[in-house]
Specification:
Blueprint (H helix, E strand, L loop, with lengths): L1 H23 L11 H9 L10 H6 L4 E3 H4 L24 H11 L5 E4 L6 H8 L3 E6 L2 H17 L6 E5 L5 H4 L5 E6 L6 H10 L6 H5 L19 H18 E11 L2 E3 L4 E4 L1 H11 L3 E9 L21 E8 L3
Parallel strand pairs: 1-9, 2-3, 2-5, 3-4, 5-6
Antiparallel strand pairs: 6-10, 7-8, 9-10
Helix pairs in contact: 5-6, 6-7, 11-12
The structure holds S-adenosylmethionine.
The site of S-adenosylmethionine (SAM) has 25 residues, from strand 3.
């Protein structure tokens, strides 16, 4: 009898774990970090939090360091497989799984998700899979066309009744396209000033024969020669421009809505600047235009990046194996 009871309990636990893995896309091992008593107490109240998250889902999604294995869930496996034909056309996309996770955390079904630097459309594809409406702006027509094709393909396979809009324009014009207080969540990754251009120049000159040329970011290419492209601006002008985008982004966001910026910090060793803290500069300008600095999430990319020898043998630099997700919130 006792044995049977134990079996039932074990089975229930297994089903629960399976369920949370399926619903959340987080790996089973996360379960052991939950403060069980607190969560069970909340679950008894059977009240859902905003975005219909259960207390368990809420807790599992709330870690401030997320790693690839966790986003890289076997149920979805969009990271473990090679990049698809659309993703291969762009040098710097983020995984759909990452955007989906942020969408689950900060919006509910039927909300509008926005990306001012849409690229080939990852944010909209994630919004589509999560039943949110989506709107995105992309300057380069090649990328906005790819986004359109990719969206048509997924809509053909898993059509829903939500509305999607892909705009080929400079995101400095975002107020022309989007009304005030419409967006619940922005998920985006801007170009990093002219760092990509610089690092490519650097690679073809200084590091011609070094390990850096062969092993680090070697597929990254500049987005375009367009003068409106943020990827062609020196850092100071770039920050000024991004500040304006953040201001307009705040205006189109609903009170209580969120804006998540996936960014990396950089170095400019040629100009003897060892470290450029883009994520904290971004957080500062966001607050200057009125956003609340809500959270900082670290996206551990250790498995994606090989270690390279930086500065050896004269000066020690660490390999930067993570990106930052700067999370802003609009006050109510
Ligand atoms: C880091 S990529 C974004 C990639 C995107 N997250 C994805 O997964 O496809 C930055 C994008 O911003 C675009 N971009 C640069 N300047 C822009 C501008 N002024 N307005 C709109 N898009 C711009 C670039 O063409 C590039 O595709």
């Amino acid at each position: 009898m006792r044995k049977q009871k134990y079996k039932v309990k074990k089975k229930n636990k297994k089903t629960l774990t399976k369920l949370s893995t399926k619903i959340l896309g987080v790996a089973e091992s996360e379960e052991k970090y939950l403060v069980k008593r607190e969560i069970e107490k909340e679950e008894k109240k059977s009240k859902l939090g905003f975005n219909n998250l259960t207390p368990r889902e809420w807790a599992l999604l709330s870690k401030n360091v997320i790693n690839e294995n966790e986003i890289l869930n076997p149920v979805w496996n969009d990271l473990s497989s090679p990049r698809n034909k659309y993703q291969l056309e762009h040098g710097a996309v983020y995984p759909i799984k990452l955007a989906e996770r942020l969408i689950k955390m900060y919006s509910a079904e039927g909300d509008v998700v926005f990306d001012p630097f849409l690229g080939i459309g990852s944010t909209i594809i994630a919004a589509q899979s999560q039943g949110r409406h989506g709107v995105g702006i992309e300057l380069n027509p090649k990328f906005s066309n790819i986004a359109q094709q990719w969206l048509s393909e997924v809509q053909g396979l898993f059509a829903n009744d939500k509305v999607y809009k892909i705009i080929n324009d400079d995101c400095r014009n975002l107020l022309k396209h989007i009304h005030k207080d419409k967006i619940q969540l922005t998920v985006t990754s801007p170009p990093y000033a002219n760092f990509i251009r610089k690092s490519i120049e650097d690679r073809t000159t200084t590091h011609k024969t070094s390990i850096i040329t062969h092993e680090n970011n070697s597929t990254v290419k500049p987005y375009s020669d367009h003068e409106q492209d943020f990827g062609n601006l020196p850092y100071k002008d770039f920050l000024k421009g991004i500040k304006e985008i953040l201001k307009d982004n705040l205006e189109v966001t609903k009170p209580g809505g969120y804006s998540c910026w996936v960014v990396k910090d950089y170095r400019d060793t040629k100009n003897k600047i060892p470290y450029i803290p883009f994520h904290s500069d971004l957080a500062a300008i966001g607050q200057e235009v009125g956003w609340l600095y809500q959270d900082l999430i670290i996206w551990d990319q250790t498995g994606q990046r090989r270690l390279v020898l930086l500065g050896y043998p004269s000066v020690f630099y660490v390999n930067q194996n993570c990106s930052f997700i700067v999370v802003f919130r609009k006050s109510k």
